[in-house]
Fold this protein.
Amino acid sequence: MPQSRRPARSRKSARARGRGHGRDAISLLKSDHAEVKKWFGEFEKASSVVRKQLLAQKICMALKAHTTIEEEIFYPAFLEATGDKDIHHEAEVEHDGAKKLIDEIEAAGPDDDYFDARINVLAEMINHHVNEEEKRGGMFARARGSDMDLESLGEQLRQRKRQIMEGGEATASGEPATAMPPRRGRGKIGAMLSRNGKGRDARHRAS
């Protein structure tokens, strides 16, 4: 009786894990993209101010959570695995631009004359960003071709996103409101100010 052939072990098993299961990092991020795109479409068709405000809140919160988990988890893993600084840096710069516009949208509110315009421009920015990540040769394709453990990353993204959405951690700028490790190159000034503040307190108590 012929023996069943065991599947050969792949040297790139980490890359293959999670592929096609719908639960890996890229599947989660693409699902976020599709959800926000749907809300942008609904905003464009909405006529009620209340409906527009609700959709704008959902869009902004979703994008803040999405950019946070990408910047904290997916982007660093991508840069480490691929070394592609061009794709990584451009994605972060695009995030910064989107977060600034989100700040303006949330600060202005639906009574602002430029409210609809800001949402429409944000939709264009996000659409461009999504195309850059999902296109052939883009960030997601490069990630698929690397040794990133996309299934493990997907679980990390999912847990962090749940934490943000349930705890309301994301601020208007997309940075977590709770104490999180600062992004590289950021937070140095705050640390210096903190140390200086402690020094002043100590001198004050000594006097």
Q: What stands out?
A: The chain has one domain: 21-179. Residues 21-179 form one domain. Helices lie at 13-16, 25-45, 49-82, 85-108, 115-134, 139-144, 150-167, 188-206.
